[in-house]
Specification:
heterodimer; A: alpha+beta; 5-stranded mixed sheet; 4 helices; 15 strands; 44% strand; B: mainly alpha; Cytochrome Bc1 Complex, Chain D, domain 2; two-stranded antiparallel sheet; 14 helices; 2 strands; 37% helix
Chain lengths: 225, 343
């Protein structure tokens, strides 16, 4: 009888938790359309398609109204080749704020070779200029006159004044739906394209500038299922 | 009593055999030379095990790491020449593809903070990824290297012994390589023996004169005992037209870093020719002659240490050369512990 009660209680608890938590995901988009690799999207100034979208999310935390950390999540490498990597963790119903670092902290960049998400085998490590690529995207842009232009952006660099990791913080209300972080890829890419920049593989001032544009392109929205 | 003497005799014999035949006795212990600065990397037994060192050594000499299994780390870093690529101004890797810089000597790396002529690598464990993946060197991928090692029973066993698991990862691979490269310590040249006041070892008059000249003109960049400060400097060499190498600028993007290259150690300099980042000087006397009389003082990138003219006489140049030869450490260059691991 005692065991049955315990099992019953546990099931109720699990259901309660499931009801009170929702999985947050990162959603790289063109306009309002979630990106699928290889698919072409119409934009105002032509078309765009992607064959790589990868970025690091570090120190992800959800916080209560009083600023108490409800949960911290391990660093993840979001990679559109693996859609499961986009869902990074559950958001508790008590959370009113979330914050995270888009990219990798400077200590990780000077600590030799690390494992897991930071394993250089993931293609996000610069060997020639030690450090992580925080945001990587590659694809094809077809401009308004039909010219195909390959693009490659590897945004990284951990040294001031051109560090590229960016801190983001959002108010969140799980009552509004399941939160998701939309990255408007076309916003920051078009900013670069208009400046004639289609390829960037080194740290520096332009990388830092574009990292700030990526940061500004991220928006918290809610979905309803 | 007789039994005690016999036991003592056995113990002494074992000790001497181990010493003579290089058996594991005291092997994993690396002693930091007296009066040397604290190394950047941990050299204790906690960081370098005998098994880890031997695994790193096997990897260092194994061409299996390159795409077509023809090139190993040792191809461009030969022990007998201070772990550099003798007689090659720049090294050639897979399919004969040429690089753009002279292969640096691998000597006393445990004291370095940055690696490569431009200092682009910030950790000894991160260094190994470059030669493995560079198209002009071993042209492989980390995934393929790990796949090959995982398929090799011997390596799996070695990784198991060192890391307690036979799962091979990039971090373990690079750590093992660095256990070997961190151990490459050269501290037993004639210069070292003289400074340690070892019995019967003294400088000749010419070498002593060379030391004085060295300490007057060279030591600000080639600081003893490492014979480098590991700083980035410009020695005013005219730009190489073939490679257009801007040095440290490529890493920092700062104009002020244009044409700066890391100061190399002078230890074993007798054997690490050719010299400079692009290997433009084949002989050491050409290097001395350059510093003595050929620096362009109007070169705006020239580091301040070389602002004043040096102008050494022929005799002084020869004396300096004689001193530089005292930095040769044959024990290091021919140490079987660092050589190709015969199985």
């Amino acid at each position: 009888m005692t065991v049955s009660k315990f099992v019953c209680f546990s099931l109720v608890l699990i259901c309660f938790n499931a009801f009170n938590q929702s999985v947050l995901r990162f959603l790289p988009c063109v306009g309002s359309q979630p990106i699928e690799l290889g698919k072409e999207y119409a934009i105002r100034e032509g078309y765009i398609s992607f064959y790589a979208v990868k970025f690091y999310v570090s120190d992800f935390r959800t916080l209560t109204e009083k600023g108490k950390v409800i949960k911290g999540l391990p660093r993840v490498l979001v990679n559109l080749e693996d859609s499961s990597s986009q869902s990074i963790g559950e958001i508790d119903s008590a959370a009113v704020r979330l914050d995270f670092l888009l990219g990798t902290d400077s200590l990780s960049n000077v600590s030799g070779i690390l494992e897991g998400a930071l394993d250089p085998i993931n293609g996000m490590y610069w060997a020639w200029n030690s450090g992580y690529i925080n945001v990587k995207t590659e694809g094809i842009y077809i401009d308004s006159i039909g010219k195909e232009i390959p693009f490659e952006f590897h945004l990284g660099g951990y040294l001031a004044p051109n560090a590229t990791a960016r801190f983001l913080s959002f108010d969140v209300n799980p009552q509004n739906g399941i939160p998701q972080l939309v990255i408007h890829m076309d916003d920051w890419l078009m900013y670069a394209f208009k400046k004639g920049i289609y390829s960037l593989m080194i740290p520096g001032k332009i990388s830092a500038e574009l990292a700030t544009k990526v940061q500004a392109s991220i928006q918290l929205t809610y979905r309803h299922e | 009593m007789n039994r005690s003497i016999f036991l003592l005799f056995v113990l002494i014999s074992v000790f001497l055999s181990a010493y003579r035949f290089d058996l594991p006795l005291f092997k994993s212990e690396i002693s930091i030379p007296k009066k040397w600065p604290k190394p950047t990397y941990d050299l204790s037994e906690k960081a370098i095990s005998e098994e880890g060192f031997q695994l790193g050594r096997s990897l260092f000499y194994d061409p299996m790491l390159s795409r077509d299994s023809t090139i190993s780390c040792a191809t461009c870093h030969l022990q007998y020449t201070g772990f550099t690529h003798v007689d090659h101004n720049v090294s050639h890797g897979i399919d004969g593809r040429k690089g753009t810089r002279n292969a640096p000597a691998l000597i006393n790396l445990a004291w370095k903070k940055f690696f490569h002529w431009d200092g682009g690598v910030n950790h000894i464990e991160a260094q190994g990824i470059n030669p493995l993946t560079h198209p002009a060197e071993m042209d492989n991928t980390l995934a393929e290297v790990i796949r090959r090692l995982t398929l090799n029973d011997d390596y799996r066993k070695q990784f198991q012994r060192v890391y307690g698991s036979d799962q091979i990862t990039t971090a373990k691979l690079m750590n093992a390589l660095s256990q070997f490269t961190r151990s490459l310590i050269s501290a037993n040249s004639k210069y070292d023996q003289v400074l340690r006041k070892e019995k019967g070892v003294t400088f000749t008059e010419q070498e002593q004169s060379g030391l004085v000249i060295f300490r007057q003109h060279c030591v600000s960049c080639h600081q003893e005992p490492l014979f480098t400060t590991h700083q980035f400097k410009s020695n005013g060499l005219p730009k190489d037209l073939q490679y257009n190498d801007l040095g440290r600028f490529a890493i920092t993007g700062k104009e002020v870093d244009s044409f700066l290259f890391m100061i190399p150690t002078l230890r074993n300099i007798e054997f690490t020719f050719p010299y400079m980042h692009d290997g433009r000087f084949r002989k050491l006397k050409e290097v001395i002659s350059y510093y003595s009389d050929k620096i362009d003082p109007t070169n705006r990138h020239l580091s301040r240490e070389l602002n004043g003219p040096i102008h050494l006489s022929d005799k002084q140049q020869k004396d300096l050369l004689a001193f530089l030869y005292t930095l040769t450490d044959k024990e290091f260059l021919y140490n079987p512990r660092f050589s190709f691991p015969k199985k």
